[in-house]
Amino acid sequence: MVTQGNGTPRPSIYRRVVTVGLLLPVAVMAVVAYGLWFITAPLPAGPRVVAVDISPLTPVKNQGRTQLCWAYSMLAAIETEHFSQGDSVNLSIEPVADILPQESAMPPSRRAMGQTLLNLMRRHGIYSGVCDPSAFIPLCTMHSKPYGQWVVPDLPDNWEHNPFLNMHPDTLLELVVQAVEAHRGVCWEGDVSERGFSFRQGLAVTLLPSPMLWLKSVIHPPTDDHCMAIVGMAQSDDGTRYFIMKNSWGEGNPYRGLMLMTLDYLRWNTVAIYLPRDLVCPE
What we know:
Blueprint: H1 12-40, E1 49-54, H2 69-84, H3 94-99, H4 114-124, E2 136-140, E3 150-151, E4 164-166, H5 169-181, E5 186-190, E6 197-198, E7 203-204, H6 210-219, E8 226-236, E9 241-246, E10 258-262, H7 263-269, E11 270-276, H8 277-280
Parallel strand pairs: 2-4, 7-10
Antiparallel strand pairs: 1-8, 2-11, 3-4, 5-8, 5-11, 6-7, 8-9, 9-10
Helix pairs in contact: 2-4, 5-7
């Protein structure tokens, strides 16, 4: 019991002030330490890949200065679906670019989510006959919302207020692995601000231990930065498994525009995943 000089108990507000006063310096030190680590931590060397399982794919595109990664990646996922069915398509971004001026609600930045591409196909009839927009189902992982229910992520890029099926991150990861191993179309949307994300090196890896990753995901959930398609799996000589990501930033890296993303990176940095509906809701 905290007491005053005369032996009488101090008020509870005093105990709260003392507790906050003790925790604040610790919190500040933790933030400073994280900042220093983020700036100075060395990036890992490229892995020695010993096994690759990749779907057929069209050439890597380059979105340039546009903010249309959501369209490029979703189109790439649709292309993979066609390849999985023995068909082949190479979808141009031009139909999307041509109809965007008709979307009055779209922000000037032209930022959106993968689901927006499917909605544009339905509203404007672009890529007619190429894909039924309902063939994909949008999934998310939000710790603050009940799993197994539809939620509307409060994200600037979700200006259409699209609903997503909320899943536990472990369940979502399992579904993604199954889909990619079956060479099905998958579109990933998530955070690329991690220190371990480097397009120049073609890598997306986690550098923090799991407890800190969990804490970070609670305090600062993943941000909606970028979209890429997932087109295969790879494994390094130390047994680490990677998703092979098809980016839309040109071919200027060791993997000619593709990237290797660890399963752990995807688990902790996903905002949304778009999977073929039959894999999530089998009849």
